[in-house]
Each structure stands twice: as structure tokens, then as C-alpha cells.
Amino acid sequence: MGQRGEPRRVQAYDGELGAAVARAQEGDEAAFAVAYRLVQPGLLGYLRGLVGDDAEDVASDAWLEIARDLGRFRGDGAGFRGWTATIARHRALDHLRRRRVRPRPAALEQDVDLPAPDSTHDQALESLSTEVALALVRGLPRDQAEAVLLRVVVGLDGPAAARVLGKRPGAVRTAAYRGLKRLARQLGADGVTDEAPRTLGEST
User: Fold this and answer.
1) Residues 6 or more apart from 93 whose CB is under 8 A from it?
2) How many whole angstroms separate alpha carbon 63 and alpha carbon 101?
3) Least crowded by CB within 10 Å, which of 68, 105, 127, 171?
4) What's the predicted TM-score (pTM) here?
5) Residues 47-76 pLDDT 10s
6) Cα dihedral 80, 83, 85, 91 sign
């Protein structure tokens, strides 16, 4: 699922993403397409975790809003991923309210590249097949599933994920830690400890 060099790739993508967003804000349609290509896989994976098979429809609604409000965005590539995730989450919750169904983890996008592990807990994710990942993430409590999806699939750091969820970074860090530890326990992963939750490279 991930290789050790991938966090640097994510950072490189964020540099490319920030440049693309800046050009898109000046009216460059090709640059907007680049931003879409870099953000959409993780965003779609996150939405599949919230609304299941309706993810593509919700993502389309989110991108309409993203395009409409692009001029209001201020920030870098990482900030843009957080901003788009916030918009997507609002559209997902609106969708679920219309269906009168509580959000629950459904499925991970099958072609999402996950950032690489930085600790033993992430080794659990490395060993997951797509089918097992779908079943296990679906079984996590909602707060843990969302934290894992935002941190691992979307690639947000702790503070950014907390802003998306409207929670304190410590609460999101703890939820992600517990979710990954539960996945590791279910997989029988070796070396999982009760250390402070640094499972996804938490920035402080």
C-alpha cells in the first residue's frame, strides 16, 4: 500500500498542487485540471468512507463548489487539500441528511495510493488487501474511521484533519491512533505498542 519514500512524494505533490492552484486562480483551466488530478483520488476515497457508492455524485457536487469558490481560497497545496476535504465533507453530510442516514464508514476507493507508514501501527495498513481494508475500516467507529480516512487517504496532518472535523487536534490524533491500533490488533500485527499516538506522522 505504501513505500517508505512516499511522504516526500506527498510533499512534492503539495508543492505542485500549490502552484497549480495559484495558476488556476488566475484562470488557467489546465492548472485546475492538474489540481483536480492531484486531489481527486484521496477526496473520492474519503467520500467513499462516508457515503459509499454515492461518492462520485457527492464529489461532483463538491467540485462544483470548489470551482465556484476557488478565488476565495488562500493557502498552499496542503491547505487546499484540507479546504477541499472540508467542502466534500459538508456535501457528504448534506447528502446523508437528505437520505436521513447517519454517516458510517463504507469503503475505501480501490485505486487510492496511501501515504507510507511512519510507525509500527501503519504496518497494519501496509499489509491490508483492498478487500480486507474495506471490511475493517467499515467496522471502525465513525470518529476513528473518519480520522483514519483523512490522515491516511486524504493525507492531511493532524491540525488540518481537526479543522475538517471541527475537533481538537488531540481528539483527532487519538481517534486515528485508536483506529489504526484496532486495525493492527485485528490483523495480529507485531510490534504495536501503547506509545504516544504518532501513527501517521503527526505534526506538532
Assistant:
1) 50, 103
2) 23
3) 68
4) 0.71
5) 888 888 898 999 999 999 999 999 999 999
6) negative
